Amino acid sequence: MSVTLTVTDIEVGNQIVEVFGTVAVASNYPTGGDTVDWTALFGQQSVRGQIVTTSMTDPTFGPVQASFTVQGGTPNLYNLQQGSADNNWKMRGYTSGSGGAEFTGGSAYPSSASGDKIVFYAAFRKLT
């Protein structure tokens, strides 16, 4: 399973397209982290009606910078692990308690994660 990325805003600069959005998680946390597919952003429109247009060939691995953050909810941590392609990055989740242990692979996301509002930021090179 993979996380679902939903665009909420886009800022288009001279060379960079900055994309902001929300992250929805599935019912189970896969061992090694949940898959992040940046190609799922293609065609999504922001509230301003701008379309995400990015160059996935430079770099070939997706955004030049990206992060996941929790707004509200618990102080769980979510970080990104770059994949070998733009559709196989990993989001890894860590509990706020238990010494920051990674979520249990193959089990349901912890109840604390269901209350998290996870948001993302990603910067892509603009097509020229």
Please provide a written account of the structure.
- The strands form 3 sheets. The chain has a 4-stranded antiparallel sheet, with no helix packed on it.
- The protein is globular, with a radius of gyration of 15 Å.
- The model has no long low-confidence stretch (mean pLDDT 83).
- Strand 1 and strand 2 (16-24) form a beta hairpin.
- By secondary structure, the chain is mainly beta.
- It has one domain: Immunoglobulin-like (Sandwich), CATH 2.60.40.
- It has 1 helix and 9 strands.
* CATH architecture tag: Sandwich
Order of helices and strands: EEEEEEEEHE
Helical segment count = 1
Strand order of the largest sheet: 1-2-9-5
Could you name the CATH topology? Immunoglobulin-like
Largest sheet: 4 strands, antiparallel
In the CATH scheme, the class would be: Mainly Beta
End-to-end distance, in Å?
33 Å
Q: Determine the mean pLDDT.
A: 83
**Tally of discrete structural domains:** 1
Question: Quick gist of this model?
Answer:
This protein has one domain (4-125): Immunoglobulin-like (Sandwich), CATH 2.60.40.
Task: Give structural attributes.
128 residues; mainly beta; Immunoglobulin-like; 3-stranded antiparallel sheet
What topology emerges from the helices and strands here?
Elements: E1 4-12, E2 16-24, E3 28-29, E4 34-36, E5 65-70, E6 77-81, E7 89-94, E8 107-108, H1 111-114, E9 118-125
Antiparallel strand pairs: 1-2, 2-9, 3-8, 4-7, 5-9, 6-7
